[in-house]
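Duplicate of #3305? Posting structure anyway:
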């Protein structure tokens, strides 16, 4: 029998997961819930199933086996808790929440129900990042230097507000914090500073926004550049530089300095030199793997996944420690104190 899958939040990133799900012959797409009902209805035209403006109706009428949650960071909580209460497995986009209190509440619901969960940290699934992790095993890691430079402001209206985007989107891109944990283990403490270096508002007369990244906003309260220093539990030090100042291209990656090995990660690809020399590119379909793993595990009757909800909680903890450091004027903040 086909796995029954539903979606909550059918905006920008959901399109990738909808298309990837539609490629699977062993899955039936049963329904879509979005507070903007017309977006859910568009999915019905494209993939079949039913549209709802309320996720509870989707859960109770369609009884999906799995739901894919692609709502903005501020909208998490009840969507996951009600799924867990009904034994519905879930995939959730990063970051998992905007507060540790809410993330811990959802984690408790997940543990109680025993469902399978997966967080959308897709960079962990590229063949190249997996190989880098293997190569780093057993070596002393010295530095984990990361950057995440975006070519402007993404279009969703919630994005440029701290309380809605949750900081792990704007201030300290959560993909890099998670991948740093994948390579080098948990982070013990963080120091962070932010700044705004560009005039973003008001929107100049005659400005036409491109459909992808924006160079102006009507209002915003996020910084446009961030610097973080992290101490990993292993003793390794890490840095993360982030910017949303428009500059023409996406650029994200790492340098990892380890005993006998220097690794360069660029997007999902990697190269290394030292006592081993090599390079590896991710397969074209690498962003599919994070969702497909959850589907495959549920079909096989397993609940283990590579990035269960608790991993999202831990990666969120680093962002929140960064926020706290900024609030305290750049003091060192222990991640464990916020968990
Ligand atoms: N993994 C990645 O590379 C990646 C890329 C882009 C976005 N994301 C993440 O995905 C999430 C969504 O981002 P997006 O760009 O798709 O945002 P979006 O604003 O384009 O889409 C969000 C959708 O959720 C709907 N929604 C809001 N509250 C809801 C609720 N309570 N119930 C049902 N629907 C609700 C909105 O109407 C909208 O259609 C964010 O957390 C973002 O960080 C991840």
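Output from current build:
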């Amino acid at each position: 029998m086909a796995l029954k899958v539903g979606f909550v939040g059918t905006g920008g990133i959901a399109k990738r997961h909808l298309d990837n799900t539609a490629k699977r012959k062993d899955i039936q797409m049963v329904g879509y819930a979005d507070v903007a009902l017309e977006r859910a209805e568009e999915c019905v035209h494209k993939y079949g199933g039913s549209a709802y403006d309320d996720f509870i109706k989707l859960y109770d009428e369609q009884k999906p086996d799995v739901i894919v949650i692609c709502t903005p960071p501020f909208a998490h909580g009840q969507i996951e808790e009600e799924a867990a209460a009904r034994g519905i497995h879930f995939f959730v986009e990063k970051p998992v929440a905007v507060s540790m209190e809410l993330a811990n509440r959802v984690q408790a619901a997940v543990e109680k129900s025993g469902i399978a969960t997966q967080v959308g940290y897709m960079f962990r699934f590229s063949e190249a990042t997996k190989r880098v992790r293997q190569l780093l095993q057993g070596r002393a890691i010295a530095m984990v230097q990361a950057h995440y430079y975006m070519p402007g402001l993404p279009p969703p209206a919630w994005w440029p507000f701290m309380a809605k985007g949750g900081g792990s989107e704007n201030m300290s891109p959560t993909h890099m914090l998670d991948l740093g944990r994948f390579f080098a283990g948990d982070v013990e403490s963080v120091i962070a500073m932010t700044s705004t270096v560009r005039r973003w508002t008001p929107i100049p007369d005659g400005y036409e926004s491109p459909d992808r990244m924006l160079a102006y906003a009507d209002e915003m309260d996020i910084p446009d550049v961030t610097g973080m220093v992290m101490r990993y539990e292993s003793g390794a030090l890490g840095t993360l530089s982030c910017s949303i100042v428009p500059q023409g291209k996406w650029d994200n990656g790492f340098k990892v300095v380890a005993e006998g090995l220097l690794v360069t990660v660029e997007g999902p690809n990697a190269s290394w030199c030292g006592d081993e020399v090599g390079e590896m590119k991710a397969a074209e379909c690498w962003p599919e793997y994070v969702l497909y793993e959850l589907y495959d595990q549920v079909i096989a009757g397993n609940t283990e996944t590579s990035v269960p909800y608790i991993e999202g909680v831990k990666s969120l903890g680093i962002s929140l420690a960064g926020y706290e450091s900024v609030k305290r004027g750049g003091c060192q903040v222990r991640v464990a104190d916020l968990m």
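Confirmed duplicate; merging threads. Residues 8-14, 33-36, 39, 55, 70-73, 75, 93-94, 120, 122, 156, 169 surround nicotinamide-adenine-dinucleotide (CB under 6 Å). The chain has ten helices and 15 strands.
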